[in-house]
Task: inverse folding
């Protein structure tokens, strides 16, 4: 594969990583926000869950998490699991920040330290050479 093709493949993989991270964090944020605004406690009655799924924020969160799953599946078909999982774990870092900012959740110092460790690990993995497939979607 040419150098231009490698850069193009790497850019598309990076774009997909960013989509996976965004869909995960925003989907979880929307789902959490919606569930906090559903009027009834869910308990064990399945009808309450079906009713909750009709809440716009919950439905949006579900849709974003479905997109997250589909883009993650595509990403895993293009790149190594050992490369994908650490990089996409940035979604959890972003979720902690979004939960703190938009849901006013308390994030303890211990949680922030764990978040920083995840971010540091992501930087280490992201700086290593991956054995990603050269041609998107093609198995070697």
Result:
């Amino acid at each position: 594969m040419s150098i231009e093709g490698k850069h193009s493949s790497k850019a598309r993989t990076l774009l997909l990583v960013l989509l996976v991270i965004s869909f995960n964090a925003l989907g979880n944020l929307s789902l959490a926000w919606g569930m906090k605004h559903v009027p009834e406690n869910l308990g064990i009655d399945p009808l309450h869950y079906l009713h909750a799924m009709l809440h716009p924020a919950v439905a949006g969160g579900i849709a974003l998490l479905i997109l997250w799953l589909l883009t993650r599946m595509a990403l895993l078909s293009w790149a190594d699991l050992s490369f994908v999982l650490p990089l996409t774990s940035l979604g959890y870092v972003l979720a902690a920040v979004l939960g703190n900012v938009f849901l006013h959740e308390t994030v303890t110092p211990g949680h922030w330290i764990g978040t920083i460790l995840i971010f540091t690990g992501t930087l280490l993995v992201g700086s290593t050479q991956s054995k990603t497939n050269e041609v998107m979607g093609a198995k070697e």
